[in-house]
């Protein structure tokens, strides 16, 4: 008798346990990766800067360029040698790639962000290997430590895209392709616009 009661009780416990056990919950899927951040809308390129002097391939324009650079060194708080280097690059590209509309202010903005305003504009080795050239017609080899040669190499790389840097989309796409950083590109835009606002002192 007690054996029967024990068997019945055991059966009831098993039935109750099996009947109330919930199936395993389905595994939750891993969260989807966040979509890439789109570049911020750019309504305009940096404002127009005071243009560098006209390039004179057949005669020296050093005195004119130096005077122009000195007049902007104070307002931009940049060494005159750097302003001259950026201006020289603008002058050269005006003849080599007139549709590029590269301004010295864009190069100064890149230098401000990537070199913290000091020294020649840093040039990635791959860019230097492809685009290095002597900024002045003195017959010497290009020097990566020379501010004018460094700025000229970067200018040639930027204008090789075929974009018009006087337009917002052309400027943003080109500079972003060079910096590979949206934050650096935005900082360059801000710095370039500030430099472009400078008036000769």
TrEMBL record:
Residues 24-59 are annotated as: Disordered. Residues 44-54 have a biased composition (Low complexity). Residues 32-43 have a biased composition (Pro residues). This is Lytic transglycosylase domain-containing protein. It comes from Amycolatopsis bartoniae.
């Amino acid at each position: 008798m007690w054996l029967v009661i024990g068997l019945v009780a055991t059966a009831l416990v098993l039935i109750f346990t099996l009947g109330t056990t919930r199936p395993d919950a389905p595994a939750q899927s891993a969260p989807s990766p966040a979509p890439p951040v789109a570049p911020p809308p750019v309504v305009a390129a940096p404002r127009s800067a005071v243009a560098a002097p006209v390039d004179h391939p057949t005669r020296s324009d050093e005195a004119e360029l130096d005077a122009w650079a000195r007049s902007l060194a104070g307002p931009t708080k940049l060494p005159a040698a750097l302003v001259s280097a950026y201006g020289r690059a603008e002058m050269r590209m005006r003849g080599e790639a007139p549709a590029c509309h590269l301004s010295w202010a864009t190069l100064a903005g890149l230098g401000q962000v990537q070199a913290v305003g000091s020294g020649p504009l840093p040039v990635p080795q791959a860019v230097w290997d492809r685009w290095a050239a002597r900024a002045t017609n003195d017959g010497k080899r290009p020097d990566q430590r020379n501010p004018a040669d460094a700025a000229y190499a970067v200018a040639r790389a930027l204008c090789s895209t075929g974009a018009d840097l006087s337009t917002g989309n052309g400027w943003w796409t080109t500079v972003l392709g060079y910096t590979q950083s949206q934050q650096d590109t935005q900082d360059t835009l801000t710095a370039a616009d500030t430099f472009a606002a400078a008036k000769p002192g």
